[in-house]
Amino acid sequence: MSSIPIITSASSVKPLEATVAKKVLVAITGIVLFGFVLIHMVGNIQLYQGPEKLNHYAELLQSMKPVLWTFRIVLLAAVGVHALFAILLWLRNRSARPVAYESQRFVSATLTSRTMIWSGPLIGLFVVYHILHFTTGTFPPPHFNSHNVYNNVVYAFQVPGVSIAYIIAMVALGFHLYHGGVSLFQTLGLRTPHDEKPLKLVLWVITTIIVVVNISFPLAVLTGLVGLK
Ligand code: HEM
After folding, report:
1. Total-model pTM
2. Phi, psi (degrees; rounded to nearest 5) at 41
3. How far, in Å, from the CA of 40 to the mean position of ligand 1?
4. Residue 101 domain-assigned?
5. Which atom of ligand 1 lies closest to the CA of 217?
6. Ligand 1, from 44, 79, 164: best to mutate by most atoms within 8 Å of Cβ?
7. How many helices (H) and strands (E) are present in the chain, helices listed first?
8. Which residue puts its alpha carbon closest to atom 37 of ligand 1?
9. Tens digit of each residue's pLDDT (9 = 90 or more) over 111-154
10. CB atoms < 10 A from the CB of 73, how many?
11. Structural domain boundaries, residue 190
């Protein structure tokens, strides 16, 4: 009986395991961040119910300091791990092909997958600006008042440049969430050829709802549907 040569060695398995571990960490932190974006969007819908509702919701969150800070620390850790390992994986992929293709044909890569590496940092920049804008008031909207989240949002989106920047960020977010969602199902071994189509459809619907609802806030203010109260 001829013996089958073993072509994998400990040294070649380890990098593979490390890559899989990184992918799983990016996937799990991605689920946490996806969940946050969804919950945050649902909370923000209270903008349409008027200042009392939205401001009361914001005050309630602010009053639960230990919960709020636990939540913030988890979120910050998730963002850090997600960004770090996603960048490391991207660098590894790039160095695996030291000579660039003469003509890039993107045979199987979709538009969204090619945009991950810029949509990710763009969303990161957006979140930094967003927190300095609405939470800390470092780059405040006009008449910033930490006890009046409703008016802060309205004052902010009355500036067309701010609204446009938010809309662009939400489109980038949509691309990122959709492709990230598809990838994480693959990483976690939950994507089979059989359910690929329904999975993509569900992700597309959820992502589109998130983008459309989030974009509706600046549009509602710009069109006067939601105003100062
Ligand atoms: C147009 C859509 C959005 C609106 C109107 C909005 C509005 C707000 C407001 C008013 C706050 C401050 C709340 C407070 O101080 O009580 C806030 C905080 C925050 N938002 Fe958004 N947001 C939007 C989209 C997003 C998106 C897409 C993300 C993430 C990708 C995000 C991430 C955050 C974070 C991390 C905070 C800080 C939460 C904390 O205080 O710990 N927001 N947002």
Report:
1. 0.89
2. -65, -45
3. 7
4. no
5. 1
6. 44
7. 7, 0
8. 131
9. 666 789 899 999 999 999 999 999 999 999 999 999 999 999 99
10. 10
11. 17-96+110-222
Does some domain include residue 227?
no
Q: What is the mean pLDDT of residues 156-167?
A: 97
Contact 51, 150 (CB under 8 A): yes
Expressed in angstroms and rounded, the spacing between residue 185 Cα and the centre of ligand 1 is 26
Could you give the percent of the chain with pLDDT greater than 70? 87
Structurally, how many domains does the chain consist of?
1
Over residues 19-51, the pLDDT tens digits come to: 899 999 999 999 999 999 999 999 999 999 999
pLDDT band of 190, cuts 50, 70, 90: confident
Q: Which residues form ligand 1's pocket by a CB distance below 6 Å?
A: 37, 40, 44, 58, 61, 72, 123, 127, 130-131, 134-135, 149, 153, 166, 173, 214, 217
Rounded distance between C-alpha atoms, residue 194 and residue 46, angstroms: 39
- Would you say 173 and 210 are in contact if contact means Cβ atoms under 8 Å apart? yes
CA–centroid distance, residue 116 to ligand 1 (Å): 21
Q: Which two tokens stand for residue 28?
A: 């799990």
105 inside domain:
no
Give residue for tokens 């991605």.
30
pLDDT at 15 over 90: no
9 domain-assigned: no
